[in-house]
Amino acid sequence: MFERLIGQSPNFEALLRSAKMVAATDVTVLITGETGTGKEVLAQALKQHSPRADKPFITLNCAALPESLAESELFGHKKGAFTGAVGNQPGRLQAADGGTVFLDEVDSLPIPLQAKLLRFLETGEIQPVGETHTHNVDVRIIAATNANLQDKIVKGEFRRDLYYRLNVVPLEIPPLRDRLGDIPLLLRHFMEHFAQDHKLPVASFGKSALQRLSSYPWPGNVRELRNVCERLSILLAGRVIEDGNLPPEITNRATAPKPLFDLPELGIDLEKVEMDLIRQALTRTNGNRSRSARLLGISRDTLLYRMQKYGIS
Ligand SMILES: Nc1ncnc2c1ncn2[C@@H]1O[C@H](COP(=O)(O)OP(=O)(O)OP(=O)(O)O)[C@@H](O)[C@H]1O
Ligand SMILES: [Mg+2]
How far is CA 2 from CA 5, 6, 10, 40, 153, in A? Predict the structure, then answer.
């Protein structure tokens, strides 16, 4: 099953190594990664390599659940618990007893349910809506999200205690732009796959087209690449694909200059950065202001003005 996850770059291989180790256990796993990086495929691979491989695997997309139904979906309900509850209905956790539940887009779980999920993770007990007593359920939880849970915690949208409980073993799938080396491999895999699928002769890539595809940042990650391959493998079956055949979003991309600094997720204090750079320049030049100004690409007057502004002597 892990064979379905194509990639050989060091960061991807490290992820697969960790994944194989945790697969064999019952530990709760949190898979993070941008859209299209393969979180669902990884969750299935984990299940397939676990002692629960032949037991149920139930996926619950937390973002697709209306808040009013979420609790009953997850924990079930008793007959008469609410209007429309015409019979006892087991929830997904109970339905998966002995197996695995995949909580996709777990960041979308409403806050009150987050508390209930946490209680389940800690006690292994569920309490269906309208029921007075609890049941034990033996389920392994694999959760996934493409959201930044730290941000959500800060905004009060995700419970910190649940985060720690889910994040026992974090598996972070790197975005494709951080493993550009895997692109040729993925392209070959999908071109062959779709040629076979559609019973067409396989197309290949010219050198320049391959280069473009290999440096494109793929915001939609493997899903985007897969879709491009499906389109090309049908429209250009058996041909050599050149630049002009590539989708416009790839060829028309203004080659944006690579940023000098990567703005951290949580932002920075620009003045502090400026102060810090000025100090570094002064230290490097033993306090020589003209040379410091040159290092910073500003005039000596500007440097003096800023030193005064920040109280640097
Ligand atoms: N490493 C990989 N090797 C082969 N196929 C992959 C890989 N990663 C992803 N895919 C394929 O890319 C597509 C998207 O994968 P998947 O649905 O698992 O992404 P996701 O991370 O769950 O995305 P989203 O956050 O949008 O739900 C699927 O068709 C999947 O088979
Ligand atoms: Mg998904």
Answer: 5, 8, 16, 12, 32
Ligand 2 mean position, distance from CA 170 (Å) = 16
37 C-beta closer than 6 A to ligand 1: yes
3-state secondary structure of 205: strand
CATH 1.10.8.60 matches 176-251: yes
Regarding the beta carbon of 38 and ligand 1, being less than 6 Å apart is answered: yes
Each residue's pLDDT, cut to its tens digit, for the chain (313 residues) gives 788 899 999 999 999 999 999 999 999 999 999 999 999 999 999 999 999 999 999 999 999 988 888 899 999 999 988 888 888 989 999 999 999 999 999 999 999 999 999 999 999 999 999 999 999 999 999 999 999 999 999 999 999 999 999 999 899 999 999 999 999 999 999 999 999 999 999 999 999 999 999 999 999 999 999 999 999 999 999 999 999 999 998 988 765 556 777 788 788 899 999 999 999 999 999 999 999 999 999 999 999 999 999 999 8
Domain boundaries, the chain: 2-172, 176-251, 270-310
Contact 130, 81 (CB under 8 A): yes
Q: Residue 250: left (phi > 0), alpha (psi -120 to 50), or beta? A: alpha
Sorted by sequence, the CB contacts under 8 Å of residue 228 that are 6+ apart come out as 213, 246, 247, 250
| CB 33 less than 6 A from any atom of ligand 1 | yes
Ligand nearest to the CA of 39: 1
- Look at ligand 1, atom 28, and give the residue with the nearest C-alpha: 223
| CATH of 2-172 given 3.90.980.10, 3.30.70.940, 3.40.50.300, 3.40.50.10330 | 3.40.50.300
Among the bound ligands, the one closest to the CA of 38:
1
Instruction: Please give the model's pTM, rounded to 2 decimal places.
Output: 0.81
The architecture in CATH of the region 270-310 reads: Orthogonal Bundle (1.10)
